[in-house]
Amino acid sequence: MPTGVAIRDVREQLFAAAERILRRDGPSALTSRAVTTEAGCAKGVLHRHFADFDAFLTELVLDRIARIEAQAAALCDVAGTGTVTGNLAGALTEVFGTVAVAVVSLITSRDELRARLRAVRPSGVPVLAEATAMIATYLTAERDLGRLTPHADIATLAPTLIGAGHLLFADRTSTPPEPGAVVKVVAGVVAGVLPE
Questions:
Q1: HTH tetR-type domain: from which residue to which, for each copy (predicted)?
Q2: Terminal Cα-to-Cα distance of the chain (whole angstroms)
Q3: What is the pTM of this model?
């Protein structure tokens, strides 16, 4: 893109380009040059908006975490409606059907990114920790509504569901799992805590 041409929503344009690269080529292909080329802008655009490439990646991850936190509010709003299994399957598909799996790979592959994220998110694996909290909050709401048994161990169920969801969607080179496969896994995890 020529110098002097205004770019609307630069951050979102760069984030969207990074996500496309992550999905298509994986974290090892993600460079500042690849992002700006994918975004169709000059390389200097990224560096005018972010201190360095790791600052850009940190903001990308934090933006995706904010999206999970917004999804958490929407998920809690459906507590008491539909089926617990269907709601959970939908939530896992929404989290992992996006770029979350690739973002987790990115976090684990870049030491500086992990260090910067630890400064603002000191515990857990960013993205997975927030997704686990989202599922735990939803399960608690369903338990409070009597749609899960009183003994439902939320602290075990939530990370189990996130781990299973992550594994289902982990292979970026194959097609995503069928919705029925996600429902089947969720049903298996929560079977013992659904009232008869």
A1: 8-68
A2: 61
A3: 0.87
